[in-house]
Structure formats: structure tokens, C-alpha cells
Specification:
This protein has 125 residues and is of the alpha+beta class. The protein has 2 domains: 49 residues; 71 residues. The protein contains 1 helix and 5 strands.
């Protein structure tokens, strides 16, 4: 009889653990969905309402095993920064360091921190 109660308690514990894991998986699924929706919305906003301005490459930054070009641009006198993967950006004259080069930056008028620079717009000078 004692053995039966022990098995029953063990089954109840396993059910609680499985239920908790299911809840955590559901929450993770919802959070991932929110992140994907937010990223898509930011990109869509740039495509739909983005404004172009001049930006300047200020340096190369290394992080997470990748290289990024950092750039700055100004909106109504306020300075904003952004970055782009170095491998996705073509420097003038095929140089490896684009520091000082200018290019178009597309930014959201609602939130200029939502911006991007694109290598295909290079060579404004």
C-alpha cells in the first residue's frame, strides 16, 4: 500500500513538472512572436515612411565574432548612431576601412534611432 502512494506522488510530481515546462514553452513562444512582429514593424516603417539623410562612417567595431561599421547622422541638430555588418557594406575603392566615407542613411521620422545605412547608396561626395 505504501508503494502505491509513493508511485502516485511521483506521478503527481511528474505532471507538475510537465505542466510547468509546457507553460514556460508557451511563454517563450509568445515572446519570440512579439520580437519577430516588432522587428518586422520597424523594418516596414522604414520602408514606408523612411527619410534619407547623409551619414558618415566613424569607425570599425568588433563584437560577437563579427565586424561592424559605426556611422553617425544628424536629425534636427541631434546626433544619432547606427551600425552595419562590415561584410554587408562596400567601401569606396574596395578598402577595408570605410572611416570618413559618407553614405545615405534612412531613418524613421517617428524614431530616428530606427535607421539603416546601405552600401548601395555609397559615394555621395
Amino acid at each position: 500500500m505504501g508503494n502505491y502512494n509513493s508511485q502516485k506522488e511521483q506521478t503527481t510530481e511528474e505532471f507538475k513538472v510537465n505542466k510547468d515546462n509546457g507553460i514556460m514553452a508557451f511563454i517563450a513562444f509568445i515572446l519570440i512572436g512579439i520580437i519577430i512582429f516588432y522587428s518586422y514593424n520597424k523594418k516596414r516603417n522604414l520602408e514606408k515612411e523612411g527619410i534619407e539623410t547623409k551619414g558618415k562612417i566613424i569607425g570599425l567595431k568588433k563584437g560577437r565574432g563579427k565586424k561592424y561599421f559605426e556611422y553617425v547622422f544628424f536629425v534636427k541638430g541631434k546626433k544619432y548612431k547606427g551600425q552595419v555588418l562590415a561584410k554587408n557594406f562596400n567601401c569606396k575603392n574596395k578598402r577595408r576601412d570605410c572611416k570618413g566615407e559618407t553614405s545615405f542613411v534612412i531613418y524613421s521620422p517617428k524614431d530616428p534611432s530606427n535607421n539603416r545605412i546601405d552600401g548601395k547608396y555609397l559615394s555621395l561626395e
